[in-house]
Specification:
The chain is 40% helix and 21% strand. It has 14 helices and 23 strands. The radius of gyration is 29 Å and the shape is elongated.
Length: 460
């Protein structure tokens, strides 16, 4: 019988998904979520699973109170704890669906932490997956959109019904005589998704393939696996071209495969944590800016904009202060220092024996530098650039403005303001990545050295 397949599929899904002991179950009162909660109750004893039902009353429809009452009654009968969140809708109803979705996920996340849940289960089905893929296809989404609804997200959301059809759900609730609520808005053909559900998909099944829902869900599963692989490639490529959290090297970006470049730019913007709605038009504008076909700046979601500065793309906040706050820290041999406001970590090793020639002390890595430990003071300074800073570059007799070094190297302004300079006394001894000074250089008489190293802080 089809209805008997549903608990088995839910159990098999949990074998593949996150290991959980205390699970929150989002229960709206509709047949999908009621079937999911019922199936999980049947599976709970053999799996040692604790369940907590989570219900959101959006207060948008007259039936909302009845749906809440239904869920609470079911949970009392099944002896499952039920947590209810009643929302206050905004006065403006434009974008109400996006508001409702954001509030639901906010509540689920809060419940996860407050009640010590391992995960929250949502009741999306294979039919929901097919509708989502078709909806995004018609809207012109990129291939990432065709990956559809993920079975897990953010390490705490799970969807164990994605392998079950709506027909199986309805067979299950009917066979088990389970009460459920029906949302009348789901039949309103003014909404695109309802047109897809009630008109387009039945037409495609009748005229083209009775398995079209399965085919669309399979497509989503295939694309998602490929997207995970492509995202991993993109992460590696982004780290190669991203000079700092706020700057991309266009020279290195041009060296990456064409197919990855827009992905790199999109991931670069999203990894700041300030924007997640980067669309195709934003990326096309960034491509034109990076290729020199347009000038100025490109605004992206999140009150951010990207501008080209020499051979760099620089990300800035519209409301950010024009200059970085000054910072200055002490650093002694054998210590490591984190500069969170600049996004850097600087380390200076304890003195170690040196037996090489002076020319061997010039590291091929510009983010490392060796210093004669005998002439180093007990404490050095790590600070950001200040107007008037000068340095005597290694091999030169005179000084040069650090500002001029930045200009010659086409260092973006945002990077100049954050880069950690190593200062000995009043002398800038090292500008990591760019120039080492004559100060405390390794000579033929050097016997002990300290190695300095600068690295970006890992992303959170």
């Amino acid at each position: 019988m089809p209805w008997q397949e549903l608990p088995r599929k839910v159990g098999a899904a949990f074998d593949r998904l996150l290991p959980v002991r205390h699970l929150g179950v989002a229960v709206s009162g509709g047949p999908d979520s009621v079937a999911l909660l019922s199936a999980l109750i049947a599976l709970a004893p053999q799996r040692g699973l604790r369940l907590t039902a989570l219900h959101v009353n959006h207060a948008l429809r007259p039936e909302a109170e009845q749906e809440q009452c239904l869920v609470e009654t079911l949970c009392r009968g099944w002896q499952v704890p039920c947590v209810v969140e009643t929302l206050t809708p905004p006065h403006l109803r434009s974008g109400i669906e996006a508001w409702a979705r954001a509030e639901r996920y906010r509540f689920f996340r809060a419940a996860l932490e407050r009640y010590g849940l391992d995960a929250v289960a949502l009741a999306h089905t294979q039919d929901d997956q097919a509708e989502t893929v078709l909806f995004r296809l018609l809207r012109g989404s990129a291939r990432r959109g065709l990956a559809g609804i993920p079975s897990t997200r953010d390490g705490w959301l799970v969807r164990p019904l994605l392998g079950c059809t709506r027909q199986e759900v309805m067979a299950y609730v009917t066979a088990q005589h389970l009460p459920y609520a029906t949302d009348a808005s789901n039949t309103d053909l003014r909404y695109t998704r309802n047109k897809i559900r009630h008109l387009l998909l039945p037409f495609l099944e009748q005229e083209f393939s009775p398995q079209v829902r399965l085919h669309l869900a399979t497509l989503a599963e295939t694309v998602r696996a490929e997207e995970d692989w492509l995202e991993a490639l993109t992460t590696c490529a982004r780290k190669r071209v991203q000079d700092s959290p706020l700057a991309i090297s266009l020279e290195r970006l041009a060296g990456e495969p064409i197919a990855l470049r827009l992905r790199i730019l999109r991931q670069w913007l999203e990894q700041t944590g300030q924007t997640h709605d980067v669309g195709f038009r934003h990326l096309e504008s960034l491509r034109a800016l990076s290729e020199g076909r347009t000038y100025g700046r490109v605004e992206v979601p999140g009150d951010l904009y990207v501008r080209r500065e020499g051979n760099w793309l620089v990300l800035e906040n519209k409301h950010a202060r024009p200059v970085a706050s000054p910072y200055c820290y002490a650093l002694a041999p054998g210590q490591e220092l984190q500069v969170p406001e600049a996004g850097w970590r600087v380390a200076l090793t304890a003195p170690f024996c040196w037996s090489g020639l002076p020319q061997h002390a010039r590291s091929a890595d510009p983010w490392q530098a060796l210093f004669d430990a005998a002439v180093l003071p007990d404490t050095l300074l790590i600070r950001n650039f200040r107007p008037g800073d000068r340095i005597c570059p290694l091999g030169m007799k005179g000084h040069k403005k650090v500002q001029d070094i930045f200009i010659d190297a086409k260092v973006p302004l945002a990077r100049r303001r954050l880069l950690p300079l190593l200062v000995i006394g009043t002398e800038v001894a090292w500008v990591p990545g760019y120039v080492r000074s004559e100060t405390a250089k390794v000579t033929s008489t050097t016997r002990w050295v300290c190695r300095a190293e600068a690295n970006p802080l890992p992303e959170k």
